[in-house]
Amino acid sequence: xxxxxxxxxxxxxxxxxxxxFVTMAIEEKTxxxxxxxxxxxxxxFIRLFNRMNDLIPNxxxxxxxxxxxxxxxxxxxxxxxxxxxxxxxxxxxxxxxxSIFENIAYGLRVNGxxxxxxxxxxxxxxxxxxxLWDEVKDKLKKSxxxxxxxxQQRLCIARALAIEPSVLLMDEPASSLDxxxxxxxxxxxxxxxxxxxxxIVTHNMxxxxxxxxxxxxxxxxxxxxxxxxxxxFINPKDTRTQNYITGRFG
Length: 250
Prior knowledge:
Blueprint: E1 2-13, E2 16-27, E3 31-35, H1 42-46, E4 59-67, E5 70-71, H2 79-85, E6 86-89, H3 100-110, H4 116-129, H5 133-136, H6 149-162, E7 167-171, H7 179-192, E8 197-201, H8 205-211, E9 214-219, E10 222-228, H9 229-234, H10 239-245
Parallel strand pairs: 3-8, 3-9, 6-7, 7-8
Antiparallel strand pairs: 1-2, 1-4, 4-5, 9-10
Helix pairs in contact: 3-4, 3-6, 4-6, 6-7
């Protein structure tokens, strides 16, 4: 089943044509990696799915973006409700200036949940899902800023999971982390795809090869090729994909 679909999508920043006629469909409970050189439209594309580009002035979008068959740019769509279903983790860890516990509980409270037992159980479950519980269970009242960078990023993933989205968008989630923390994030992505549909932007082609089921190669605002990851890396159909993967440009 296709959870997300982009149909002939164009995006303009003022006069700049940043995404050009992008069409792709993303299957449920898979990991899709977006690869390509800097500035080719990967992050712009991923932000279409939870309407983060709405926050940027002079953005114009045409084409259709569907989530479970519904056009998310329809005027009847609640953006707040959409973002509960489609969570996002950014390039740099961005914990709130609160305790570890309150970082996770925050989204629940904002959504009107006040049951202490429910919140406590959800916080624990989210931290377990994010492979962080064993490291923080004895210091939940401490500031999130006391955690290492890798722990902070897993905390941000736990925070996104707490409100039970069905899709998780990850914009270069390991780019600022050391190799050990990066490995933990990759292991986590592999585990989470049993329950969530994940789209990850990455500059690290080895990472794309390790964690994803499908890979899309973007270049100059176009999606050049989209296929199962092994096909993209072993037998790409487009010479531009081949050239990028073999390091001839990018």
